[in-house]
Every structure is written in structure tokens, then in C-alpha cells.
């Protein structure tokens, strides 16, 4: 892998398309260009658990944000790169739909609450709307 290459990067529970800006032995620095998978909500140390000291609202990395990713979590990406806003909208919608399909699940319910806090921030930052997601 080399600087300038377009890659798929997996960071914590999210996945992104980005441009390599620095390649080191164990770590790559990736400039985010699109979101493939929105990060899961909650505590990374206690995945899918609700009874934790702090249940995090996890945002997707911002457009052109540079993130540090372990080299083994970076793969070449060959397809078209979607517009950041479109990719974020799709990723949030997919996460919402997955969580909403299990309304009785405590983790899904709590994650939906966290996601509904993030959505207005994304709307403000990127001018995105989610017509299929209730605002309240």
C-alpha cells in the first residue's frame, strides 16, 4: 500500500472509504472520503450491553478527517467513491433499520435513542435529511 491509494478502512465498529496519507509498519493514516458502515452505539468494552457506566453516542468520522487505523484493518478499494453525505445518509439509514427491526431488544432501543441524538447534528453539519426516520 502507498500514499494516495484509495482504501477501505475498518476502525472500531465503523467502516470507511478513504485515501492513505501515511503508511507505516503497523499503522496507516487515512483521510475519510465516505462512510461504508456507521459505528455501533454503546460502549466498545461491553458491546451490545445496555447496563454500562456510559453508553456512548458514536458519530461517524467526518469528511476529510484523518484517522489512524491498524495496517491489518486497511484494504484496497476499487469501486466508485460515493459522495460523503450520500454515504453517511445510507449508513445511518441501514443502522436505524437494523435496530428498528428489533424494537423489543434493550440494546436496539438504547442505540436508537443515541442515534436520534446524532441525526440532528448530522442534519446541521451536512444538510442531510432522513425522511424515513421519525424525529421524536
Break the fold down into its secondary structure elements and pairings.
Blueprint: E1 6-11, E2 14-23, E3 27-37, E4 66-70, E5 74-76, H1 84-100, H2 106-126
Antiparallel strand pairs: 1-2, 1-5, 2-3, 3-4
Helix pairs in contact: 1-2
How would you describe this protein?
The protein is an alpha+beta fold and 136 residues long. The chain has a single domain, classed as SH3 type barrels (Roll), CATH 2.30.30.430. 28% of the residues lie in helices and 26% in strands. The chain is built from two helices and five strands. The protein has helices at 84-100, 106-126; strands at 6-11, 14-23, 27-37, 66-70, 74-76. InterPro entries: KapB (IPR014916), KapB_sf (IPR038080).
Q: Strand-residue fraction?
A: 25-35%
Query: With helices defined by DSSP (H or I, 4 residues minimum), what is the helix count?
Result: 2
Category by helix and strand content: alpha+beta
Q: Mean of the pLDDT scores?
A: 90
Strand segment count: 5
CATH fold name: SH3 type barrels
Give the domain tally: 1
Radius of gyration computed on alpha carbons: 16 Å
Largest sheet: 5 strands, antiparallel
Major sheet: order of its strands?
A: 4-3-2-1-5
Broad CATH class: Mainly Beta
Name the shape in a single word.
globular
Amino-to-carboxy terminus distance: 45 Å
Order of helices and strands: EEEEEHH
Organism: Siminovitchia terrae
Protein name: Kinase-associated lipoprotein B
GO molecular function, one term: kinase activity
Keywords: Kinase, Lipoprotein, Transferase
